[in-house]
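Batch 3, record 17
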Amino acid sequence: METEEEKKRIIDELISNFDLKFFRTLGEPGRLEILKFLIQNGRSDVGTISESMPQDRSVVSRHLQLMHEAGILNSEKETRHVFYSVNGQHFIEKLEGITALTKQCISKCCPSCCE
Amino acid sequence: METEEEKKRIIDELISNFDLKFFRTLGEPGRLEILKFLIQNGRSDVGTISESMPQDRSVVSRHLQLMHEAGILNSEKETRHVFYSVNGQHFIEKLEGITALTKQCISKCCPSCCE
DNA sequence: TACATTAGTGCACATAAATGCATATGTCAA
DNA sequence: TTGACATATGCATTTATGTGCACTAATGTA
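Prediction for the assembled complex:
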């Protein structure tokens, strides 16, 4: 067990890495479908993605923007089209970071959490 | 790169492990505060947790139920009190599972996602 | 038994989020 | 330059979620 100050620091670091926007973005079925599509089909433009989704094109466009802001997708404007693709690097780093910090935090600050 | 059938199977496995309830639960500031409190203070009853939160006791109670349903917290009824604690084991396993499947899925099904 | 304590539920309300239509913005092509 | 196309934005509507008050259920205590 750490000192109280060290405990607080570790917990604050964990909580500040629990990106609300990141979790909220992943907690919506429509956006998960978009993520699935992009893993399956790779880099695609808004129109192509929309064709596979039940929602309106404008709705899909907004979902894509949110996912981009959350760091899950890349966005590249090319002439008239905007291509989105999974930002695998950032996405995986985010997940790894959250997982590692959680493990570290619980083992150091709350061993009783794992009894 | 895998066969198309294998790709679909891997992607479906990933998406089915992207537990919407889990992500939604973590994507709310009030619930994150509760998580923080429980890591810091360990197993506590509803009243004690509520005292540190700005929301009404009933609101905190509902958040705790949600977090329990999402597998993040343990719940133990003892006489009049209900004690909640972080389910570290399940929480960490969930995060590790999601992280591992995502890495595996992207490397096998969408290597271009990491360019 | 009567009363206090603890947690959860019913309900109404406020806020936030998802959705679709119409329209604007920017880009290409004839 | 005109028209078609791709995407994003404004706006209104619906749906979902968070919130607090009042009340109930369950348990312990005087």
